Automatic annotation (TrEMBL):
GO terms for biological process, alphabetical: DNA-templated transcription initiation
Protein name: RNA polymerase sigma factor, sigma-70 family
Keywords: Sigma factor, Transcription, Transcription regulation
RNA polymerase sigma factor 70 region 4 type domain boundaries: 151-198
InterPro entries hit by this protein: RNA_pol_sigma-70-like, RNA_pol_sigma-70_dom, RNA_pol_sigma70_r4_t2, RNA_pol_sigma_r2, RNA_pol_sigma_r3/r4-like, WH-like_DNA-bd_sf
Annotated Pfam families: Sigma70_r4_2
Originating species: Chitinophaga niabensis
Length: 223
């Protein structure tokens, strides 16, 4: 390939990359202001760009939650992929949701549970320490004192897996009590009880500095 052909090829590639980047930016601006019902309605109507925007927006959250449920990267990514394929193929039968985050997290949990049960019946959800780090990081911040983080981490390690998960869903993912209850297959009352147990345990076993960090968010937990 001659010099000018190489230059032309590079310019074409650069232009294509710029065009694609510009399309993504326009897409994000177009869908970013929509509330969940409107965005989900576009998917139901067959808007591929709307689904692509949802995928981009929620992939990291789904991946993190999936890895906490079952630390198998291949399985988690496959389940996320299958989830979006299923959404697209069954879009005409979907109901409108007012919380895309809740719908995706609940659906992913079911898919992972189904796949894991096929491999190891009865072993889903035994990754007991998986829900420790994220609530810890959120409660006291990425830049907080490492010693404080270590103390809270040790306390979180002592919580049962279900209590860690309920803190993760209710606080880290920001789901409301009813949504958290549905994902964990609990009644709303049982969800309040489990959440209260987790919070009370943290309070009981924390020093004043950790309690202060925690109490900032306790009202949010118990809404």
């Amino acid at each position: 390939m001659g010099k000018w052909a190489c230059i032309l090829t590079k310019r074409v590639i650069s232009l294509a990359a710029f065009t694609q980047s510009n399309k993504i930016k326009i897409r994000d601006e177009l869908y970013g202001h929509l509330h969940d019902k409107a965005l989900w309605s576009k998917v139901i109507e067959g808007d591929k760009d709307a689904l692509a925007f949802i995928y981009k927006t929620y992939f990291n959250s789904l991946y993190q939650y999936g890895m906490k449920l079952q630390p198998d990267e291949g399985l988690v990514k496959d389940c996320i992929h299958d989830l979006f394929v299923t959404i697209w193929l069954s879009r005409e039968r979907l109901s409108v949701t007012d919380s895309i985050r809740y719908y995706l997290l609940a659906s992913l949990k079911r898919k992972i549970a189904s796949q894991q049960q096929k491999k190891l019946p009865g072993h889903f959800g035994e990754n007991t320490n998986s829900f420790t780090s994220s609530p810890e990081e959120v409660l006291i911040g990425e830049q907080s004192n490492l010693e404080l983080r270590a103390k809270l981490g040790k306390i979180m390690d002592q919580l049962p897996r279900r209590q860690k998960e309920i803190l993760y869903l209710r606080y880290y993912e920001g789901l409301d009590t009813k949504q958290t209850a549905a994902i964990m297959e609990l009644s709303v009352n049982s969800t309040y009880v489990l959440l209260s147990k987790a919070i009370n345990y943290l309070k009981k076993h924390s020093d004043k500095l950790i309690i202060t960090s925690f109490l900032i968010f306790s009202e949010f937990f118990l809404k």
